[in-house]
Amino acid sequence: MRAIVITAQGGPEVLDHRELQDPVPGRGEVLVDVAASGVNFVDIYHRSGVYPVPLPTSIGSEGAGTVTALGPGVEGVAVGDRVAWVNVLGSYAERALVPADRLVPIPEDVSFEVAAASLLQGLAAHYLTHTTHEVKQGDTVLIHAAAGGMGLLLTQLAKLRGARVIGTVSTPEKEKAAREAGADEVIGYEGFAEQVKRLAPPGVDAVYDGIGKATFEGSLASARPRGVVAVYGVASGPVPSFDSQALTSRGSLFLARPSLVHHIAERDELLSRAADVFGWIGRGELKVTVSRRYPLAEARQAHEDLAARRTTGKLLLIP
Ligand SMILES: NC(=O)c1ccc[n+]([C@@H]2O[C@H](COP(=O)([O-])OP(=O)(O)OC[C@H]3O[C@@H](n4cnc5c(N)ncnc54)[C@H](OP(=O)(O)O)[C@@H]3O)[C@@H](O)[C@H]2O)c1
Q1: Using CA positions, which residue lies closest to atom 44 of ligand 1?
Q2: What is the pLDDT of residue 9?
Q3: CA-CA to 296 of 20 to 30 Å: which in 2, 242, 280, 304?
């Protein structure tokens, strides 16, 4: 089978499209024919070294496809089942090994592409709006990179829960995408905290910040006293060390640095959040925008485009 492998961490050039032996499922694993793999920022962190991974490894964290073989001890899954998964390294491939207890069944009304595009970011948007800060009717929230993969989903879920959404974007095209997802106010990054304070004095109830280094200070300045700042990603680089007293002086803020891993660790939680996400999609309440599809061999291009802020919505690799 063909897969994307790295033997060292580094730039997009370390992504190697190569032939590998077909994997054989071990105890508790299934083999899946991959129909589509989601491209996520976490794949860039795995590739570049922001997050360490064992080397060599095939990379990619998310996908959807059809079960073709079962390892010993697997129950409740059958060959032919349509499934999706997240946080399983090796998903940029024609075939992937997935632990059976990490599989999410795909409902009939959801396509492979939509499943591969919605699971990782959909589950993350779910816990951020339902657990990290439970968005309520009448809240105002600030969502950075509102036209990105996460941003479009967060915007729609915050609107579903009755919030007013202020989004940041870098281009007019991205402003259009954020507004179509329901953002009430869309602003640029220049002086965003002052703009937010003008639009929503004395500040927003929650800030969703997936950008990190470049926006962190402004995010703290945008929250109302006792508001929540969720730094859920670091697309511009890690947040430098800071004095926690800043949280007090800004108004007793709550700072979170959450990860999806800890919000789907239990199988019940994985399945119940996924059921919500697929349910919203099935009912037309959540729209998943696949903006670009790349052949598996063009994984480098996909990473370059995502890192260079050239994209909106979700990117997929099609094996
Ligand atoms: N913690 C979790 O559970 C979790 C789960 C999923 C994703 N995430 C995080 O969510 C964030 C967004 O992920 P995504 O896959 O949906 O990506 P994305 O938002 O589609 O792409 C990143 C966007 O961030 C903005 N950005 C601002 N400064 C940037 C910079 N220096 N470099 C790159 N992008 C920059 C760009 O939008 P503008 O051009 O509009 O600024 C860019 O399009 C990432 O930080 C990711 O790690 C976290």
Answers
A1: 233
A2: 97
A3: 280
- Tell me the per-residue pLDDT of 227-285, one tens digit each, with 9 for 90 and over: 999 999 999 999 999 999 999 999 999 999 999 999 999 999 999 999 999 999 999 99
- State pLDDT tens for residues 96-141: 999 999 999 999 999 999 999 999 999 999 999 999 999 999 999 9
pLDDT of residue 312: 97
pLDDT at 15: 98
* Encoded amino acid at 301, one letter: Q
**Closest atom, ligand 1, to C-alpha of 212:** 45
**62-108 pLDDT, tens per residue?**
999 999 999 999 999 999 999 999 999 999 999 999 999 999 999 99
* Ligand 1 atom closest to the CA of 149, numbered from 1: 16
CA 285 to centroid of ligand 1, rounded, Å: 23
Residues with CB under 6 A from ligand 1: 40-42, 120-121, 124, 145, 147-151, 169-170, 174, 210-211, 214, 232-236, 258-260, 306-307, 309, 311
Q: How far, in Å, is the centroid of ligand 1 from the Cα of 82?
A: 29
